[in-house]
TrEMBL record:
Its EC number is 3.2.1.2. It comes from the Eukaryota. Residues 164-173 have a biased composition (Polar residues). It is an enzyme of class 3 (hydrolase). The lineage of its organism: Eukaryota, Viridiplantae, Streptophyta, Embryophyta, Tracheophyta. Residues 57-67, 151-163 have a biased composition (Low complexity). InterPro entries: BES1_N, GH, Glyco_hydro_14, Glyco_hydro_14_CS, Glyco_hydro_14B_pln. The keyword Glycosyltransferase does not apply. It catalyses: Hydrolysis of (1->4)-alpha-D-glucosidic linkages in polysaccharides so as to remove successive maltose units from the non-reducing ends of the chains. Residues 79-88 have a biased composition (Basic and acidic residues). This is Beta-amylase.
Length: 692
């Protein structure tokens, strides 16, 4: 338990013990009535000290602690060892609860809280959100403009050091969080991001020059009458307190000047083209594209939905909305990345529109539901077609692969001039759910929740027929079945006989089944890409691969196995996929490049996730065979810390071969990205990706 909590709060056991001892001493002092001025000053300092303070600063705090005495001048009373241990356990439990609260605020409210923030940071952040001013020593008072602003109205805040997010990836310890207010809950849900990192003079630099440089940001970004309020109020802190406040260390930030140029694209909203294949809001979109162009964004990415273009009748394609969109992009001299989206939209995390598969496909599915992926309980997943019908003529005389090929040929013929002019720079071919090359093993509509292992999706009649044929060819016809001890969607590996340590996944039958399961995935990609290469000859094609990072630190890698990636700890499951992409000169679009372990440890320490380890395994598998790598963010990304993580992966430091990403796509265009402050941070990211 102690180990789990230690990972949760991100501190070492030695630090815990030292801090617990200090807490115990403070409790003793309170019982004796000995709370002197020095202890009060130390409480203020500890509230503003970041997690990466130097050893000298810690020793300085210890010296203050040692000077605190009881009113009678004697030494503190010593508590029994058992009581001190109980105090440590209570404190660790309190910190674990605090860590989960902070994780929720960071993930769902996007407060700029440092990794080792405590309850003081939460109170300070909420106070600033309500329009109060909170000084580094904890002094709190209403802002001058609060009286004229209704509760819940727009507020501006300058974050103190107690609410800075300081980590190894943080570019500067002096950061200003801009918290826009929200008039209604609808407005809040539309703009969930609470803060943007901007360079700012340290609030601890109290010289005459810097006092006048700490503004409060108004609604439009202009300086208000209260700009100098924070700086002037710092004079109320006595000289002794100022002298005891340690300086904030400035962390160095990597210089990306003169690094390789990586083009940046922005994914358009899912519903930019409506179900009638019309451009929904051409005027509004044009304004947004012009803003992107002003930031030197290279182009946009858009889904070309099969369920919209070939909606009603086989081989009757309607490209009208896309024609108008592409013409708009051409006039702005932007480039295009297009996605052949052969899956439905809706029902997954982040889907805000519903775009089903073509109506005529749904009619076939009602009479023959085996055209869809099926789990062990017989539940059908209509998100995409089963790979078992790739060569089965069940779609009104055509196989699934022929349907995909006809669709791609129609697109190429319709927009051939855009290919000839180089405006369409890449075509990403959808190969499964969410356009990714994987099985739909963790569908939210069937009850899956992170970090469940998911379920195998091979129980339609066509895939079972393939499994039976393979088992008979192997000489073991009784192997023609799926595992019966692989758990359920939300199981964890130790709870199953198949994925547990030393489980059946590594037995004779387990290895046979998993080899067949992943071969079906690779063969599907091979068939579709061979035709995509013909349809889009001369243009870069790409395949999207999802980053399934949970349970990566277990031996079985259960979540990857159910998704079709045969990648246990004793096997490289991505080498075969990379080799297949190499045969077709296809790029790999990997969607996990911005994730990092701090967030995952705080939220799901029990998931044994390792997104960074997965990223580098996949990147090395691709670079080993020489295929280009594109990337996009899997989660919303608007802050500098996450952008810096993407930059570090896109341009590996000191790589002897100078390898880097082919392109990066920001996921996705939204009102929040167009916000003045968030867009400034995005514009800075684009410059660094370009090597400026």
């Amino acid at each position: 338990m102690a180990t789990d909590i230690q990972k949760l709060i991100g501190t070492s056991e030695e630090d815990d013990d030292e801090e617990m001892d200090m807490d115990v001493k403070e409790e003793d002092n309170e019982e004796n009535g000995g709370k002197n001025t020095v202890a009060q000053i130390m409480a203020g300092v500890s509230g503003g000290t970041t997690s990466n303070s130097s050893d000298n600063q810690f020793q300085h705090q210890q010296q203050f602690q040692e000077q605190v005495t009881t009113p009678s001048g004697g030494a503190r009373r010593s508590r029994p060892l058992e009581e001190k241990e109980r105090t440590k356990l209570r404190e660790r439990h309190r910190r674990a609860i605090t860590a989960r609260i902070l994780a929720g605020l960071r993930r769902h409210g996007n407060y700029n809280l440092r990794v080792r923030a405590d309850i003081n940071d939460v109170i300070a952040a909420l106070a600033r959100e309500a329009g109060w001013d909170v000084l580094p020593d904890g002094t709190t008072f209403p802002s001058r403009s609060q009286g004229s602003r209704p509760v819940g109205g727009t507020s501006a805040a300058v974050t103190s050091s107690s609410s800075h997010l300081v980590s190894q990836q943080t570019p500067s310890a002096s950061l200003r969080g801009v918290s826009p207010g929200y008039q209604t809950s609808v407005e809040y849900n539309t703009c969930r991001m609470r803060g943007v990192f901007m360079p700012n003079p340290s609030p601890y630099n109290l010289s005459a020059n810097t006092q006048s440089q700490i503004p409060a940001v108004g609604e439009g970004g202009e300086q208000t009458e209260s700009d100098l309020h924070i700086g002037g109020s710092m004079d109320t802190i006595n000289d002794k307190q100022i002298a005891d406040i340690p300086p904030i260390p400035k962390l160095p930030e990597r210089d990306f000047a003169a690094t390789p140029f990586i083009p940046v694209y922005v994914m358009l909203p899912l519903g930019v083209i409506n179900m009638k294949c019309e451009l929904g809001d051409p005027d509004g979109l044009l304004k947004q594209l012009k803003v992107l162009k002003s930031a030197n964004v290279d182009g946009i990415m858009v889904d070309c939905w099969w369920g919209i273009v070939e909606a009603h009748t086989p081989q009757e394609y309607n490209w009208n909305g896309y024609s108008r969109l592409f013409q708009m992009v051409r006039e702005l001299k932007l480039k295009l990345q297009v996605v052949m989206s052969f899956h439905e939209c809706g029902g997954n995390v982040g889907d805000d529109v519903c775009i089903p598969l073509p109506h005529w496909v749904a009619e076939i599915g009602r009479s023959n539901p085996d055209i869809f992926f099926t789990d062990r309980e017989g539940r059908r997943n209509s998100e995409c077609l089963s790979w078992g019908i790739d060569k089965e003529r069940v779609l009104r005389g055509r196989t699934a692969v022929e349907v995909y090929f006809d669709y791609m040929r129609s697109f190429r013929a319709e927009f051939d001039e855009f290919f000839a002019d180089g405006i369409i720079s890449m075509v990403e071919v959808g190969l499964g759910p969410c356009g990714e090359l994987r099985y739909p093993s963790f569908p939210v509509k069937h009850g899956w929740r992170y970090p469940g292992i998911g379920e195998f999706q091979c129980y339609d009649q066509y895939l079972l027929k393939s499994l039976k044929k393979t088992a008979e060819a192997r000489g073991h016809p009784f192997w023609a079945r799926g595992p019966d001890n692989a758990g359920f969607y939300n199981s964890q590996p130790p709870e199953t006989g198949f994925f547990c340590e030393g489980g059946d996944y590594d037995g004779y039958y387990g290895r046979f089944f998993l080899n067949w399961y992943t071969r079906i995935l690779v063969d599907h990609g091979d068939r579709v890409l061979s035709l995509a290469k013909l349809a889009f000859e001369g243009t870069q094609i790409a395949v999207k691969l999802s980053g399934i990072h949970w349970w990566y630190k277990t031996a079985s890698h259960a979540a990857e196995l159910t998704a079709g990636f045969y990648n246990p700890c004793n096997r490289d499951g991505y080498a075969a996929i990379a080799a297949m992409l190499k045969r077709h000169k296809a790029a790999l679009n990997f969607s996990c490049s911005e994730l990092w372990m701090v967030d995952q440890q705080v939220d799901f320490s029990e998931a044994l996730a390792d997104p960074e380890g997965l990223v580098w395994q996949v990147l090395n598998a691709a670079w080993e065979v020489g295929i280009p790598i594109a990337s996009e963010n899997a989660l919303p990304c608007y802050d500098r810390v996450t952008y810096n993580k993407i930059l570090d992966n896109a341009k590996p430091l000191n790589d002897p071969d100078g390898r880097h990403f082919l392109s990066f796509t920001h996921h996705r265009l939204s009102p929040l990205l167009m916000d003045r402050q968030t867009f400034m941070e995005f514009e800075r990211f684009v410059k660094r990706m370009h090597g400026s």
